[in-house]
Amino acid sequence: MGGRSGFTLVEILVVVAIIMILAAILLPVYEVATKRAEAISCLSNLRNLGMAASLYADDYDDRLPPARVSETRSSGSDVGWPALVTSYTRNELLLLCPADANPTAATGTPGPRCSYGINYELTLVGGYNNSSLRRAELYQESRTILFFESDSSLRTLGMYQALEGLAAVAPRHAEGCNFTFVAGNCKWMRLEQTLSPENLWSP
C-alpha cells in the first residue's frame, strides 16, 4: 500500500494561518526597528554636521557658519550653509535624513534638498550680509540649538527662519526631532521641549 503524498487543504490552511500570525507579530517589530535605525542614522548625520560647523568656526575667527552667503536674497546667487559645512565633511549624503521622504522643500522652490535647517538666531544676525555669531558670544553652547530637522530646506537657501512660527521644524522620529547644539552634543527632543522651560533657540 503506497504512502500518503501531498497535503490536505486543511493542512495547507493551517500553515497559511500560522504564517499570517507570525507576519502580524513580526512586521510591527520590523517597522519599529527600521524607524529606530533611521533615527540613529539621522542623529549621526547631525553629529557630523555639528563637528563640521566646529571646524568651520575654528577656521573663521570663532564664527559659526552663516545661514547664507550672498549679496542679495536671490536664491540663484546664494551659497547656503550646507555647502560651507560639507566642504569639511566631503559627504553630501549627511544632508539627508533617511526618514525624509519629501523630495522637494516645503517652500516648493526647486533645488537640491536638505533635511536639516540651521538656527537663524545665530547665523543670520546681520540680515543677508553673511554675518553670524561667534561661539564665545553665546551664553551656553551646549544649550543652544544649531541644526535641526526641517521640511523647508534647500541646499542654497539654508532654511526659512525657525522663529517664524517654528513651522520649519519636522518631527520625523516618534513625534520629535533630532537636534545638534553649538557645542556638538546631539539629542532627540519634542519641539515644545526646546521652548520651555528654557528657550534653546536663543543665544
Describe what this molecule looks like in 3D.
Strands 3-4-5-6 form a four-stranded antiparallel sheet. It is elongated. With 203 residues, the chain is an alpha+beta fold. It has three helices and six strands; from the N terminus they run αββαβαβββ. About 4% of the residues have low confidence. It has one domain.
Looking at this protein, list some descriptive labels.
single chain; 203 residues; alpha+beta; four-stranded antiparallel sheet; two-stranded antiparallel sheet; 6 strands; 32% helix; 10% strand
Q: What is the helix/strand order?
A: HEEHEHEEE
- Average pLDDT number: 80
Instruction: Kindly report the spatial arrangement of strands forming the biggest sheet.
Output: 3-4-5-6
Q: Kindly name the structural category.
A: alpha+beta
Distance between the termini: 88 Å
SSE order and pairing:
Elements: H1 9-59, E1 68-69, E2 79-80, H2 81-89, E3 116-118, H3 120-123, E4 145-149, E5 177-181, E6 186-189
Antiparallel strand pairs: 1-2, 3-4, 4-5, 5-6
Helix pairs in contact: 1-2
Structure summary:
The chain is α+β, with helices and mostly antiparallel strands. The chain has helices at residues 9-59, 81-89, 120-123; strands at residues 68-69, 79-80, 116-118, 145-149, 177-181, 186-189.
